[in-house]
């Protein structure tokens, strides 16, 4: 469960919404993910469906509804705006490609990039959707994901819960040739003002240039960048 607002029914409704972002959920899955009684989970899901915040798929399972996209479209993306200020400075310090990834169920989406002007790059086009099963960005986002999402990802991931525990302990993750042969990366979590991890900021480049322990080289810069992003939210 996330932060408590002190308004019980609102917090429970948000629990239901969050449960459906990991995967389409029937009533049994909602109850398992939220710990709510069946009657309560069903009542909240149906109410959210009426308002378009949830919808049902062909199998009758609940998933995020169209009204969420409508509401989101009307609000500025503060993280993207912050990235426009922070990422170029991180790129200039490291001389490498930098990205921000936002989790989306079992995937991560590149929502901001800054590329060096010359040299061999690890180019990730804006909007690219990558799996959560490999790479330093995936490790960061999975390390702080809700338990149900984390377990589902770990079932197919190239890393283990022991690796994620180490990521949480030191506050950053690295990878070498996990997502793509010859590419290494290091990532740190980006938190919102409430302390929730909402994204990962990453530096990536050729292994031959940044080495097989990129965390020793860039972790400090990544953490400074993540703190700067949080400060601008």
Automatic annotation (TrEMBL):
Gene3D superfamilies: 3.30.450.40, Winged helix-like DNA-binding domain superfamily/Winged helix DNA-binding domain (1.10.10.10). One of its GO terms (molecular function) is DNA binding. Residues 67-233 form the IclR-ED domain. It holds the Pfam family HTH_IclR. It comes from the Bacteria. Keywords: DNA-binding, Transcription, Transcription regulation. One of its GO terms (biological process) is negative regulation of DNA-templated transcription. Residues 7-66 form the HTH iclR-type domain. This is DNA-binding transcriptional regulator, IclR family.
